[in-house]
What does this fold into?
Amino acid sequence: MTATRQKVDSEAASKRKPGLSARQRKRNKQNYMLAAPQLIIFSVLTLIPLVLALPLLFTDMTNFKDLQIDFIGVDNFTRLFTDASVAADYWPALIKTVRFTVFNYAMVFVFGLTFALLMYEVGFRGGLFTMIYLPWMVSGLALGFLALMLFSESTGTVNLILEEWGLLGDPINIKSETGTTIILPILVGWKAAGFNMAIFLAGLLSIPKDTVEASIVDGASYRQRLFRVYFPQMIPSFVIATIFALMGSFKVFDELAAMGGLYQNDAAEFLSIIFFRWGFTQNKLALGMTLAVMTFVPLMIVAIALQRYQKHATTYQD
Amino acid sequence: MTIIDEKNPETTSLSERDGDNLSGAPRSASVSGRRRILRVAILAFFFVYVILTLMPFYFLFVRTFVATADSTDMWWWLPPEEEVNMNAEIGNLSIFLNLDIAEIKAEWGIPLTEYVEPRWDLNRISEEYDIPLETIRATLTPFGRFNGWIVLLGGGSGFWSSIGRTAIVTALGVIGINVLGIMTGSALAGLRFRYQRWIYAIFLVSVVIPPFLLLLPQFLMVNLIQGVIPGSQESGLVREVSQLAVLVFLYIQGGALSTMIFTSAIGAIPREMEESAEIDGASRWEYIRHILLPLMKVPIAGLTVIVLPFFWNDFLAPFVYLDPTNTTLQPLIQSFVGQYTTNFRIVFTGVFVSILPLVFIYIIFRKWFVAGVMEGAVKG
It folds into this structure.
C-alpha cells in the first residue's frame, strides 16, 4: 500500500519538479537541515577517512605519529607476494578467517533456520524466544572468556565434565586452530541463535497463510513444503542472514582478544587481529591499510551485490 | 500449521488430511496423534536447549568462587570455605589474593606507616602485633571464597568508574541515535525526491563497510580532530571527556538501521496530520516535537533495544580510543587478564558482573526486546 502511494507520489513529484510550490521548496530546505547533522557526522567519521586514506596506501607510513612519509608506489600492494614475513602473517590469518566464516555461516542455519522452522511448527512462543535470544546480551569479549572457561585444555568445564563421565578422548583445546575455527563458531552461533531465528521467522511469518494451507491440502510433504513453498518466499531472509554472517565473521575481534589473540595465541590470529597489530603496535600502518583494502573491497562488493539482489527480490519494501 | 490449528478446528481437519491416505477416519486420528507427539518433541527439544543455554551462566557464577589452583577440578557447586593457612606468608597472600594491605592494617590496628615484613607468616604477625588468631582468621576468611567479588567491587579495580562511564556513553549513544534518527527520518520520509533517496542510500552504505577496513583510517581522522582540541593531549578532564565524546559520536554516526526504522515509521503517518498542524500554525519543529515524537514511541523502543547491547558491550572502540585509565567495562575486563594473571576469580567475576546489568534490563523489558528484534528483522 505505502509502496504504491510512494511510487505515485514520486512520479507526481518528478513531474512537477520545475515548478515546486514555495511550501515544498521551504520543506526541502528544512529536510536538508534535518538530515545534515547525521550526514556530517557520518561523512567526517566514515566517508572522508576512507577517501583520505587512499593516498596513504602508496606511502611508507609506519604509525600514526609518523610524519616522515615517503611515496613508495605500489610496494604495499606487491609486498604480500614479495615479502615472506608479510605473507607468513597474512595467508594463515586469511585461511583461519575464511574457515571461521564457513563454520560461522553454517551455524546460522544450524541454529537460526532450524529453530525458526521448529518454532513455526509449534507457534510463536514469547517465553521461549526470550530464552533463546538471551545469549545475544553477552558481549563478544565475555563470549571469548566463556569459550576459555568451557573449553580450555585443562580447566575447561566441558572438558572436565566429559572427563568425569569418561567420555573424553583428547581434551578439546580452545587455544588451537580447531578451537578458534570450529568451537568458537558454535559459541557465536549460540549467541546469535535468537537473532538469526528472528530473521528467518520474520520471513516465514510473512508467507501468506493461504499458500501454506493450500500446499497442505494438496498433500505436499514437509520436504516439498520446505523447498517449494517456504524457502523460495524466504529469499530476503536468506540474503540478510548471509550479509550479517559474512560481515560479522570478518569483523570478529573481541572473542579473539579475550582468547589472547593480541599477544600469545597464534590460533586466534585472524585478519582482524593482524590488521590491528600492524596499525597500532607493529609499525606497518600503510601496509595494514593496503592489505585491508585488498581484502575487504571484494567483500564489500559481494555485500553490495547481495544487498541489491535482496532489494530486487523484495520488490519495493521499505 | 499449528498457529492456526489451535484456534480454528476447521483448519485442523484440513491439515490432518495430509499424507497420501485420504480415505479412512482411523488413519486421520493417527496422523493427528503423530502431530501431537511431534509438537511435544519440538517443545522438549527447545526445553533442553534452554537448559543448556543457561548452563554456561551458571558455571561462570560458580567459577567466580573457584581459586586458580582448584580450577583443574570440576565444581558443580560453590567450593567449600577455605581454611586460612596460618603458616602462609603475608606477602604471598597479598599477591595471590590481591589484598589491599592498607585496609588489612587498619583492620588489625597496625599503624599505616609500619613496615610489615612480607616473609612473616600469620602466626608471627599475630605474635608481633598481639592480634588474636581469631581476628586474623575472621578478616582473611572471606578473601578466600569471595576474593573475586571483593577485589572487583572493592574499588581498587576501577570497576565502578568504568561501569559509570559505560552507562553514560551508552545512554548518550541511545539518546543521540534516536534524536538523529528522527531528524533524518523526518527529512527523508516518503522518499519522494531524488535527494532523499540519495541520502537514504548513503546511510545504507554503512551496513556494507567492513569495520576493519575503516578502523585505521578512522583512527587517523579522530586523531586529527582531537589534535585540534586544546588540552586533549595532556591527561586531564578535557582529554577524558573528549575521548568519551569520540565514542558517543562513533556510536551515533552511521545509523543505517535508525534511518530505515524512522524513515518508514514517519513515512507511514498520514500526510494530513502534518498539513492540519501546519494550518493550525505549527512550525515544522513544533510538529516534530509535539505531534511526531509522541507517535514514535514504538520505533524508539525498537531501535533502543537493538542498539543497547552493541553500545554496552562494545570492546574495540573504547579499547582503541580511550586511555586504559579512563576506559569502559569491556576493555577493563580484558586488562584484568594481564593484571591478575594468578587470579582467575577476578577475571570471571568481572565477566559475570559485566553481563548482569544488561541481562536484568533484558529480562525486565523482554517484551520490547522480542518485539524490537522481530520488527527489525522484518525491516531487514
